[in-house]
Amino acid sequence: MSASTVEPDAQPLGLRERKKLQTRQNISDTATRLFLERGFEAVTIAEIAAAADVAKMTVTNYFPRKEDLALDMSDVFVDSLARTVRERRSGESALAALRRVYLEWAAERNPIQGFSGPEFGRLMTESPALAARVREFHEARENRLAETLAAETHAAADDFTPRIVAALLGGIHRALFEDTLRRTVDGVPDDANAALLVERTRAAFDVLEPALGEYAVRA
């Protein structure tokens, strides 16, 4: 999950902003290299700062939590499901939009869907701190999705439906992500991993189709 991401429709950045992004990426890349070499718990913020040739405060300004040095796709990960719903096509339900995008992620071997590479996958799964942080991302993503579904369907404040739907749709992604990550760590080639992911994605969405196929359809 370690990568820097710029929105495709973002405006061109000025020199100062580009330098800040370069500094952030340098810190993240340096930290990831050290984590892979020595393990997450064994590396300190001070060592990362020294290796990246920046002040320790610079590291913490960009990454307030040590875990986010390794998991710096967190913003994209947390917003991924909600964004898919916000940008669904005309006539497309939330379920259909997410099915389509999940299959696209499988075809792309996207890290959001668990394609992290064996070494980085082991780093995430073997570190208790990183594993706990990933669980927090799953929870935050489900909450973001529930908020978006409520807004998109103009749900009343006491309507529990968006929360239930978010739990079901978020649960599918979490199960598929963890399954793909496990196979990645086990050394299953990406092509074989993606083929099984496509099969399981279709099966999972088929289960929910009768209940959610007409929910949150964009007019």
UniProtKB/TrEMBL annotation:
Entries under SUPFAM superfamilies matching the protein: Homeodomain-like
Protein's UniProt keywords contain Transcription regulation: yes
InterPro entries reported for this sequence: Homeodomain-like_sf (IPR009057), HTH-type_TetR-like_transc_reg (IPR050109), HTH_TetR (IPR001647), MftR_C (IPR041347)
Residue span(s) of domain HTH tetR-type: 21-81
DNA-binding region per Swiss-Prot/TrEMBL record: 44-63
Keywords linked to the UniProt accession: DNA-binding, Transcription, Transcription regulation
Pfam family for this entry, one: TetR_N
Full protein name: TetR family transcriptional regulator
Organism: Nocardia acididurans
